[in-house]
Structure formats: structure tokens, C-alpha cells
Amino acid sequence: xxxxxxxxxxxxxxxxxxxxxxxxxxxxLAYVALMVGTALSMLLLPAGFIIxxxxxxxxxxxxxxxxxxxxxxxTEYEKKQKDYIQQLEKITEWExxx
Amino acid sequence: xxxxxxLDWFWLAAFIVLMVGSxxxxxRLGKRSEADFFLAGRGLPWWLPASSxxxxxxxxxTPMWVTGVVYKHxxxxxxxxxxxxxxxxxxxxxxxxxxxxxxxxxxxWQTLRFSGLPSHLLRGWMAxxxxxxxxxxxxxxxxxxxxxxxxxxxxxxxxxxxxxSAVCAIYVLAAGYWGVVMADFQQGIIAxxxxxxxxxxxxxxxxxxxxxxxxLTEMGQADRLNPFAFTGWFSGDFPIAWFLTMFVIAxxxxxxxxxxxxxxxxAQRIQSARTVKDATWCIWSGTALVxxxxxxxxxxxxxxxxxxxxxxxxxxxxxxxFRLGFENLPAGMIGFFFAAIVAxxxxxxxxxxxxxxxxxxxxxYHHYIQPKASQxxxxxxxxxxxFVLLLGSFVFGSIMENITEWLIFALWLMAAxxxxxxxxxxxxxxxNGWAYLxxxxxxxxxxxxxxWVLPAFGVIPxxxxxxxxxxxxxxxxxIYLPVTFLTKPENMEHLVKYYVMSRPIGWWxxxxxxxxxxxxx
Lengths: 98, 521
Prior knowledge:
The complex is a heterodimer. Chain A is built from three helices and no strands. By secondary structure, chain A is mainly α. Chain A has one domain (17-97). Chain B is mostly helical. Chain B folds into two domains: 6-398, Sodium/glucose cotransporter (Up-down Bundle); 401-490, no CATH class. Chain B contains 24 helices and no strands. In chain B, helix 4 (47-56) runs antiparallel to helix 13, helix 9 crosses helix 21 (433-456) and helix 10 crosses helix 18. Chain B is globular. Chains A and B meet through helix 2 and helix 3 of A and helix 8, helix 11, helix 14 and helix 17 of B.
């Protein structure tokens, strides 16, 4: 079984899995590297370009890891969304007149 | 005062027409329904709300704030702006959960997550608080524009406050969130380009990157080039303990909802995205751009420091980035720069006008007063609410100097003691509405005691802000944890409905088992 799963079925994608945790860890690191790397690159420091490059690489890795799962969740969810909106409106009115 | 040529006035007039026009164009879409007036029909591709995230968090006071911390601390001051990194985890956790709930607002979400009386109390409280907060932010940002107009044109401060907010209100009243997001898109592009141009121009005015580094080294200020230049673990005005606290608050806060004041504006962008995936990438990329923009500003401010190293008063150096533009750009470009400042300003104003209005309309009027209101009526109530917020912002702006200290305290007390409960409500099924309500009330009491009363009477020493955060978090837990266990869990049927709809992360085992038993999963 691959470390990072790239093919998802709708029901499996609804669960929280290790791909989500990879995203949770990669994402703040990418932010730090993008911010620090941009500042130091503006000063034309070599370390800045390296850190900025790392930030871009982390961002691409983040997209590669989590995007297939997000696509599956979204496709499945869109089918339900119309019903959910109607249900939500009912809840809103029911709560108000409870 | 800055001299404007004909070309400068032309840029300004053309930009105002473009900005207002691009918003008003969407009048027909905005008036279709409540969902259109406040969420653009929940159909936006990720890059549109992403540009709105970026534009909204680029306000007239933002460069002043970034200038203030970087002028004082060097590049390490950028960590003050890292609070927006709550989106790092939120984009993949609470954004997904919130988007699936389809709640218009965070106040509405409280009634989906909790049930019964506490959920209503929470919704009403949160809606009222958000109306107040948005008025306050409008006044705060508006008065910053007033100060800039005073610097540029020597106008009385109120003129800049009233004129540009009123211009912005034209398209927010006409097209609601459709107008906001479409104007934000072009305002965001203009702002990004101009921030880049002015910052590079400022760096060049200071002699370029090599000259800035050389000059700082000669001044014995080379530490300003190091983003990790701390003053010790607990000592000095920039300790590692502060950095770690900020990092935890910002990043781990992404598991919750409302751990940052920006969540409430972002929640609207999340719900306006057409899918969960679009919602995720809209707040992730918008925030990445915000952080990179702060870094660009930071380097420009290093240039400003090299040019003017001995400014002691924060009121004098906080306008540093604006001065770089106005004092160094060539004639004809000044108007372009000022037009971009207007873009920066009204992108934030438009967001908070519409955001305050959604709480007033959806959570107060639609929920409590007229649940059966027609869509046409709700749109009109949205417009009236927008107008009320505009007027309220003028009042707040005019008294801002007197109330700022109190309101910063109010912001702080809203943040510290409820930070963990904001996470617990998302990740723990057993955390109930009474506990969340208890957390808010106890935080109100404890923050007064810890921040003002006890230090004033010498009972405890005056504490650093990061120390206050940890103390308030622990004190609050002594109240809301017992309340959690001494009161009943939420109604299981209500929790199952919420779980099936939102699929939250964390400790939801009993609810999930019940949902499976009921054949819903």
C-alpha cells in the first residue's frame, strides 16, 4: 500500500486519514518558508532563494498529497449539497419557532 | 501635504469609477436572494474568494502595523503578522467542517453544533458581538484612511473617513457580496502590484539590498536582518516564549473555529466557494499571499529604517511605507499609488459592511424576528443593515482615539480564554453549549482580573501578553470543564445530524456509532 493514496472512493475520502495529517504538517512549514524566503530573497541573500525554493516545493508537495482526496470529497458533496441547503433552511426556521 | 498633478487626479478618478463600477455591475445577481446578497450563491471558484481574502486583509492600517513592528524589531517583527497562519491547518480541517455545515455565519453554526437554549443564547450573543466588532473595525480602518488623507491632502481626518467609506457603500448596498468579491478581485490585483512597485522603489531609494545590509551592519543593527533574532527564552522584548506562544495560538488554532478574529470574515469566503476543495484553496492561497506580502513590506521597512534610523515615536514611523511611496515615486505615479491605497482601503471596508450585515440579517432578523421573510425582504433588510453599519462606523471612527485601548483589551479578552473552547467545540463531541457559554462568561471575568484589576492592586505583577494567554487558558478550563461534565451532553439526535452533515475531526466515537446504527453512514 502506497504511503500517499492518490485514488479515492467517496466513502473512504470522508474519513480523516494520514493524508490529512501530512497536509496539516506540511502546510505551516510551507507558510514559514514562503514568508522567510520572500523576505531574504528581496535582500538578494542566497539563503533566501533556497528557503523560498523550499517553500514552493513544500506547497507543490502539499497539493500533490491532498488534492486528489479533496477532489473526491467535493464531487461527492456537491451531489448532496442541494438537499443539505433545503434541510438547513428548515432547521433555521424550526429553531426559530421552536 | 503631497502635490498632485493632473495625471495623479486622473488615476484616482479612473480607479474610483472602475472599483465602484465593477461592484455595481453585479446588482442584478446580488438582489436575487439572501444567499446571493451574502454568499454570491455559494458558487465561486477558489481564486475569487482567495483574492478577497488577500484584499480584505490588506487594509490601510496593515502597512502601518507591519511598519511599526518591523521598524522596532527588524525582520523578526514579521512574526507578529504570522497570526494569520491559523489558515495553515484550518484550510484542511475547520474549513472543510464549516463548509460542509453550510451555515451562513459562525453564529448560525452554533445552532447546528449545539442545541436548545444555550445554542440560541450563543447565536444571539455572537451575532450581536459581530455586528459591534464589524462597526468597530470599519471605524478603525476608516480613521486610518482619514489620517492618510490628512497627510496627503491636509484634509480634516473625518473627511477621509466618511468620503471613501461612503463611496464603497454604493456597490455594497447595490450588489451585496457579489459586489464585494468582484471589486475585491481587481482591488487585490491593483494592491499587490502597487505594494510590489512601491516596496522595490523604497529598497532602491535606500541604495538597494546590498547597501541596506552594509548600512545595517555599520550601524551595529545586523540582527534586524535575521527573522529569528530573539532576545532570550523569557527575557527582553522579543523572547522565544512569546514566539512559541504565538506559533501555537496561530497554527494549532486552525483546528478550531473563531480562534482568530479573522475567522469570521474567512467563514463567509469559505461558504461562498463552490466546493469544499475551492474553500480549502481559497483561504490557503489567500493567506500565503498575505504572508509573502508582509515579507515584501518588511524589507521595504528595513530600507526606511536605513534612511530614517532615529525616529522614536511610533506615530511618526508607522507611516514609513506610505512615506517611501509619496517621497520617492515620480510625478504622475503618486496618484496611481494613492488610488491603490484607496483600493486597499475599500476592499476592507466593503467586506466588513457586508459581513456585519449578514449577522444582522441572517442571525438576528431572519432567525429571531421574521423566519418566514421573503427573499426580497431579506435582501432589503441586508441593505438597511449595511447602511446602519456605515453610520455606526462613522461614530466609532470619530471616538476611536478615546476608546482604542479599551477595544484592544476587548479583542484580547475575546481571544485568550476561549481559544481552547473554540477548538474543543469542533473536535470533542462531549463539549456542550453550556460549557462554551461558561467559557465566554468566565473569560470575561478572568481577563478583567488578570489584565487590569489584580496588577492594579499589586496582587500579581503586570504580565507579558503571552503569559496572560496561558494563565487565562488554564483559569477558564477550571470553569468550563466542570460545567461540561456536570451538564448533560447535547441531544444525540441533534449531534448525529450535525456529524453526518459535517464529518468533524477528533473525538466523536459515540456519535459516529449512533449514526452507523441509525443507518446514516
